[in-house]
Amino acid sequence: MVTVFSVFGADKFLRPEVWMGWMPSWMENALGISREAWLSSAGGIELLLAAALLFPQRMIRQIAAWGMAAYLILILTQAGMNDLFVRDLGLFLSAVAMAILL
After folding, report:
1. 26, burial (CB in 10 Å: exposed 0-12, middle 13-18, buried 19+)
2. Are 75 and 42 in contact (CB under 8 A)?
3. 6/45 Cα distance (integer angstroms)
4. Residue 32: exposed, middle, or buried by beta-carbon count in 10 A (0-12, 13-18, 19+)?
5. Which residues contact 49 (CB under 8 A, 6 or more apart)?
6. 3-class secondary-structure state, position 98
7. Where are the domains of the chain?
8. What ranges in the chain are assigned the alpha helix state H?
9. In the prediction, which pLDDT does 50 show?
10. 7-61 pLDDT per residue, tens
């Protein structure tokens, strides 16, 4: 989970043009924020959650795992049924399992 969230989070900053197509069109100017800003926020959240999962305190790791699960639910509700949905569903279930087992 740390690797996936770190790589995807960093890639949103390194290659935003690749990710912009996955941002829902309704997010343009939602709350007065551009899609580019939303994308940067998503990348920052992913990097923060990945870093928190490496933190030595158990409770912080659990919060990070539940945060990843919540974040993935948001993605799953926007993605539609496709191969990426299946990938994200697997990541969601992994995050839930990790949060319970930590």
Report:
1. exposed
2. no
3. 10
4. exposed
5. 5, 64, 67, 68, 71
6. helix
7. 2-101
8. 2-14, 16-20, 35-53, 58-79, 83-101
9. 97
10. 999 999 999 999 988 888 887 877 888 888 889 999 999 999 999 999 999 999 9
**Type of residue numbered 7:** V
**CA 20-4-71 angle, 5° bins:** 65
Single-letter amino acid, residue 79: A
Are 12 and 46 within 8 A, CB to CB? yes
SS3 for 80? coil
Q: Which two tokens stand for residue 83?
A: 């191969």
Here the tokens at position 27 are 């997010």
